[in-house]
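Section 4.2 – Deliverable D4.2 (structural model, holo form)

The reporting period included a commitment to supply a predicted holo structure for the target in complex with tryptophan. Inputs used:
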Amino acid sequence: MTTTLQPTGVLGTTAAQLRSAELEELITTDPGRFRILTGDRPTGQLHLGHYFGTLHNRVRLQDLGIETYVIIADYQVLTDRDVADHLSDYVEELTLDYLAIGIDPERSTIFTHSAVPALNQLLLPFLSLVSVPELERNPTVKDEIVHSRQSSVSGLMFTYPAHQAADILFCKANLVPVGQDQLPHVEITRTIARRFNHRYGDVFPRPDALLSEAPLLLGTDGTKMSKSRGNAITLAATADETARLIRGAKTDAERSITYDPATRPEVSSLVLLAALCQGRTPEQVASDLGSAGAAALKRTVTDSVNEFLSPIRARRAEYARDRGHLRRILRAGNEQANAVANATLAEVRTAMKCNY
Ligand code: TRP
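Output (structure tokens):
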């Protein structure tokens, strides 16, 4: 299957989307057949784009009873920079965000890449199963190289999709909820699983990507919402910071508020944000506002966002008060991930006849 990279929010009907619809049906009838792995790079706090794009979907799947592993991909941070600054702070921030939105450490395993040696060791046999041209062709890697802060491309950048295959396969996950940009990595994971099984015997499942409908939320400056651009409303921001950011948001001069992403992207993104927070459609929000103008729109957005995030922020603050507890949650997640990774690596060694 080939995948086309399209901006989220304007998804065409791809094979991956059709498959995702099938998977959703299977999930409702038999959640017990699935094991999920998904995760993020610890590069800062999560924002509303992440929340409505992927995070709420993870919690939904966890709450349906699917066994879930959430990886904090700390090694992957080094793919496009020489030094990963503030890594341990970011790992804690990410964990806080996860806990705040409802990832439950009793039911889901939150763990860090670098604390699971057997996971990382899977990279070696996996790299032997992919060719250099296959690595070079990966459209997401190509795109990341273009946006990289490094003058030259590191080996880790080229090989990280195979590393991500190890992230997914170490726990034999068969479902990977991700955004469109991660499809090439799931594809290479499937290829590696197939080739491994063919060469050494059946060890790995061939995981499916699960795409959710990701609404296109712009940052307050009208460009892609991103931590590095200062245009993102983070889950952890205060109500005042949120108000300030939204007050400065880009709009247009027209008084009537409409939802028309193609011709009025900035205004429409604000309408959409209010709608997502209120659990209503953007058309309803726009028609309520009528010709009230941009200032009224911004007030509505601010109130909706702050009301929506208020319980999440309260839970986050609660967890942040006890760093010892936070560390224990991570340590327990790492222990669980290590147990699973060790068992898988033992199977891999046996299959490869390397168990001396
Ligand atoms: N590459 C993902 C990102 O940048 C993070 C990630 C690492 C991941 N390992 C993963 C996602 C395994 C899904 C499955 O967002």
